[in-house]
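We were asked to recover a plausible sequence for a given structure. The inputs and outputs are reproduced exactly as logged, with field labels preserved.

PROBLEM: sequence recovery
POSITIONS: 171
GIVEN STRUCTURE:
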């Protein structure tokens, strides 16, 4: 029987060399190719999911805006329902008619106070008279002449006399 030498048993078998690679070098190009393909597939997946994710985020924002609008409208509806309940009360309607429209009950005397601060002050007349339209000229020429006369009028403002001033011209 032949015995195997201890040197032959400890050496690993020689790798099979590919015809393209010189002997003694390992083939690394297959791992780089696999990584590039994997990276390309991941990029395609990311690009294909980007648009639906963006649409989903936009829809979530729209949903939040619509929910906020719904809450505001619900609050408005609650306020309007409360107002309807107020207007169902005849005493409230009577009070609003008195306040807003100055209504009075039969047998009562209504008084309106004039000269309160809520009434506007009367405008002072400028003394300019708009010309009367004549029969022989069209209406627009009368309008133009009225604007011309009002624009060319001089304003004379009277100053009320102060204590001790007899001229009426002011200080």
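RECOVERED SEQUENCE:
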């Amino acid at each position: 029987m032949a015995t195997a030498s201890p040197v032959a048993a400890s050496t690993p078998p020689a790798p099979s060399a590919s015809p393209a690679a010189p002997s003694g070098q390992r083939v690394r190009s297959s791992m780089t190719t696999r990584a590039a393909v994997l990276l390309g597939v991941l990029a395609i997946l990311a690009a294909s999911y980007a648009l639906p994710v963006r649409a989903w985020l936009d829809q979530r924002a729209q949903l939040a805006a619509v929910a906020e609008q719904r809450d505001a409208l619900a609050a408005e509806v609650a306020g309007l329902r409360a107002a309807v309940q107020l207007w169902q009360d005849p005493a409230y309607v009577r009070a609003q008619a008195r306040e807003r429209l100055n209504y009075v009950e039969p047998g009562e005397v209504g008084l309106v106070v004039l000269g309160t601060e809520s009434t506007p002050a009367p405008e002072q007349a400028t003394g300019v008279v708009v010309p009367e339209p004549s029969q022989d000229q069209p209406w627009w020429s009368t309008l133009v002449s009225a604007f011309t006369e009002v624009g060319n009028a001089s304003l004379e403002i009277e100053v009320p006399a102060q204590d001790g001033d007899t001229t009426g011209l002011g200080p």
